[in-house]
Design goal:
The protein has about 240 residues and is mainly alpha-helical. It has helices at about 45-70, 80-95, 100-115, 120-140, 150-175, 225-235, and strands at about 120, 185, 200-205, 215-220. A two-stranded parallel ribbon has the order 1-2. The protein has a two-stranded antiparallel sheet with strand order 3-4. It folds into 2 domains: about 1-75, no CATH class; about 75-235, Methane Monooxygenase Hydroxylase, Chain G, domain 1 (Up-down Bundle). Helix 3 (about 100-115) runs antiparallel to helix 4, helix 3 packs parallel to helix 5 (about 150-175) and helix 4 packs antiparallel against helix 5 (about 150-175).
């Protein structure tokens, strides 16, 4: 049996308010491992379940309060809905195009090679360039069959989000010139105290999966005194 390290999870995710789990996107609440910040530089085993229980409850309460406040949209932008439906169905209309499984395999191999457990500047830069090529390939997806029980189509609709995550991981790995937690840079093997005070927050300029990604430093919140006391007691 071959045994080796694998990529199991990431410490990034949707930036949310700690009390309500509300994101910057109005009406979006995120809890669990899709939300960022709780686990710091490396998630401890078993913490994901308690994360879901505590922040899942906060998400539900936050969403309920949001609805009751009257802030929720009262009508849909049908133009946006129609655009999203058309984009999702476009792969059925192409007689020629790429198989989504081929792109997924190539994307997985490229990210594992260049932005895997051990990273270097050269590899990360190469990955960022290649991800733009993948963006062009995803525009030319083609699937066969019907809409019901079609895993190829499911993958085709997932690939744009996969690319977004890959870009955020690669850009974050490039900007964080240190090794910390689950992030290891062979060219920067030690932790830098300055990076211990910030996260890198990514946002989209246009809201579309293929829009340019903007990155900025996001200062970490101060640990409350009662938590500091617990940490000191434990140490």
């Amino acid at each position: 049996m071959e045994i080796g390290p694998t990529c199991h999870y990431i410490m990034g995710g949707v930036k949310v308010d700690a009390d309500t789990t509300a994101a910057d996107v109005a009406g979006l609440f995120a809890a669990g491992e899709c939300a960022a910040g709780l686990h710091g530089a490396n998630r401890l085993g078993g913490n994901s379940l308690s994360d879901l229980v505590v922040f899942g409850r906060r998400a539900g309460m936050g969403a309920a309060d949001y609805i009751e406040s009257g802030q929720a949209a009262s009508e849909l932008d049908m133009g946006e809905v129609e655009y999203a439906v058309k984009e999702a169905l476009d792969p059925f209309d192409r007689t020629t195009g790429e198989n989504p499984y081929d792109i997924q395999r190539d994307l997985q191999e490229m990210m594992q090679t260049n932005v895997g457990i051990i990273r270097t500047q050269r590899e990360i830069d190469d990955a960022i360039v290649q991800l733009e090529t993948f963006s062009e390939r995803v525009k030319n997806l083609a699937v066969k069959g019907g809409r019901a029980y079609n895993p190829g189509w499911n993958l085709a609709t997932d690939l744009p989000a996969m690319l977004t995550v890959c870009k955020c991981v690669a850009i974050g790995a490039r900007e964080r010139k240190e090794s910390r937690g689950g992030h290891t840079r062979e060219d920067y093997p030690k932790a830098d105290p300055a990076y211990g005070k910030i996260n890198f927050a990514h946002s989209s300029d246009g809201g579309h999966w293929n829009s340019a990604i903007r990155t900025e430093e996001s200062p970490l919140l101060e640990i409350p005194d009662e938590l500091k006391a617990l940490l000191e007691e434990a140490s």
